[in-house]
Amino acid sequence: MALLQISEPGKSTDPHNRKLSIGIDLGTTNSLVASVISGEAKILEDNNCRLIPSRVLYEQSQILVGNDIPNHALTISSVKRLIGKKKDDIDADNIALELADSNEIFIQTPQGYKSPIQVSSDILKKLKKIASDYFGDEIYGAVITVPAYFNEGQRQATKEAAKLAEINVLRLINEPTAAAYAYGLDSKKEGVFVVYDLGGGTFDVSVLQFNEGVFEVIATNGNSSLGGDDFDQIIKNYLINKYKFNSQSLKDQAKLNLIAKDIKEKLSSQDTINETIRFNNLDYQIDISLSEIEKLFAPLLDKTIQCVKNALNDANLSTDEIDGIIMVGGSTRMPTIQNHIKKFFNQNLLNDLNPDEVVAIGAARQASVLSGQANDDTLLLDVTPLSLGIETMGDLVERIIPRNSTIPIAKAQEFTTYKDGQTMMKIHVVQGEREKVSENRSLGEFIVKDIPPMPAGAAKIKVTFQVDADSLLTVSAEEKTTGIKTSIEIKPSYGIEESEIRKMLEDSFTNAVNDKKFRSLAEVIVDANQILELTEKAIQDDKQLLLESEKSTIERCMNNLKSEITKKNTSKIKLATDELNNASMSFAQKRMDNSIYSSLTGKNINEINK
Ligand code: ADP
Ligand code: MG
């Protein structure tokens, strides 16, 4: 989904330079970095490791990330759960962290207090380094994925982490949307897809609707404390109960967690495990079958199914209306999960890509498109999710680039002044589908100055909207007689959540009739006010031309129009406007004759003919 940004003047990017772009899946448990190389998205490895554990170890003199951290070291992990949150938002008992006095979250380390943004930025730095080492070159930009349910604060915090890591964020995209890109679902015309993402510590299910080139997240559900770790716990307890593994210390617990995780992962590709495990200097002969363990997993599976049902319910869809189910997250490798979901939807799953890699792959593809590197066969259709326009008189929006326009795109339209002698004009840029300015999203504004004084409606200001391949919007305004282009003073405006886009679209449908009424009313009021102002000024300037009877008729019509404006009945205002026009017709005629007369006075016939 396009996140619309406003570029700063002169900073618009040239899509033709060589630009290395990467996709980053900044996961709770594992992170990955990928890039499109010769047309194909590839995971970039860190010393042969594809997954980079999202862990950071702060030592006095160095910061270690992911696979660089020695086994069993106590590290900061799952910081994604904290990013963009305040102390009040979290259940601090569950998380090993030190909280400073303020409402901000800080984690105590040998290098001082670190915020979740700083910790995330250290992970991002590592990912960026893997990529720049691979290419031996600077990385131009990255697409970073975030969960669909992330709010604006969490998205902003992720961007700040990227900024700290000196990463140019081309766009944040939702993890399920990235997975859909990885499967090339955007090449289909339309469809509704479910993304089932079971990671290390979280479960997310999203319903995506792909329509006219745009993915919309139409429902999300999940459980932020349900993931692969819970399956590990079940196996760990099983080992303790059945084989009397004895884990007293924290370190033993950690070791046993790893053993359990290893068993779980092996059971994804084999039906039984018969082996001797050495633990605390004792040998344990274990003999485990998949079917035995799967029974223990059932309650966890049921929980995920319930979330799927909730999401479908929210989206008002039944299982047979779903066009595809994408499996995401390392934990979906478990056969019991595959089987359950397949049965639940009664259809085959999209699972031929590595489930822990699809998000990074999709992000890399999107990054390649946004940096202008993708060639035609990998080009993704990208469109403006909402219309773009400017405010005109009467609190109305004039749309310049309609929603769903394929980008890049440029469109221009001419506007004019409302008052005689007007020398400035405000260009207020808005995004949305509603007729009334305040019902749309305000993106920014700037002032066109130094318009030469002219009668109302004579000046011509050409306003150009340009959206480049990176969804950056540049708005420029040119005054036609002087040719002066106004520099834009709009600061970058960041993302809009998909739920917000969806709501804006829905609102525009449900309010379509009222909006139309609002527009016709607003338009007649603008006309009426303009005529009132002109007539008032005319009376002031040329009252000597008016007969008393004429003057009183005109004033009666003016008062009537003013009172109709307050009553807001479109056709009555129109009627009263026509009445005023008729009543002042002969006055207007007299003024015109008079002005011709005065422009002729004192001139000889030759001059007049010129
Ligand atoms: P996240 O998105 O939360 O960062 P991942 O998608 O990388 O996490 O998933 C990590 C989880 O996937 C871990 O719990 C890990 O044990 C689990 N996992 C990875 N491979 C397998 C496998 N073959 N079988 C079962 N679980 C697996
Ligand atoms: Mg993930």
From TrEMBL:
Question: What are the record keywords, sorted?
Answer: ATP-binding, Chaperone, Nucleotide-binding
Report whether ATP-binding shows up as a keyword of the record: yes
Q: Name one Pfam family in it.
A: HSP70
SUPFAM superfamilies from the xrefs?
Actin-like ATPase domain, Heat shock protein 70kD (HSP70), C-terminal subdomain, Heat shock protein 70kD (HSP70), peptide-binding domain
Q: Which GO molecular function entries does the Swiss-Prot or TrEMBL record give?
A: ATP binding; ATP hydrolysis activity; ATP-dependent protein folding chaperone; unfolded protein binding
An annotated GO BP: iron-sulfur cluster assembly
What protein family is recorded?
Belongs to the heat shock protein 70 family.
Matching NCBIfam families = HscA, PRK05183.1
Q: What is the purpose of this protein?
A: Chaperone involved in the maturation of iron-sulfur cluster-containing proteins. Has a low intrinsic ATPase activity which is markedly stimulated by HscB.
Name the chain's protein: Chaperone protein HscA homolog
Q: Which gene encodes it?
A: hscA
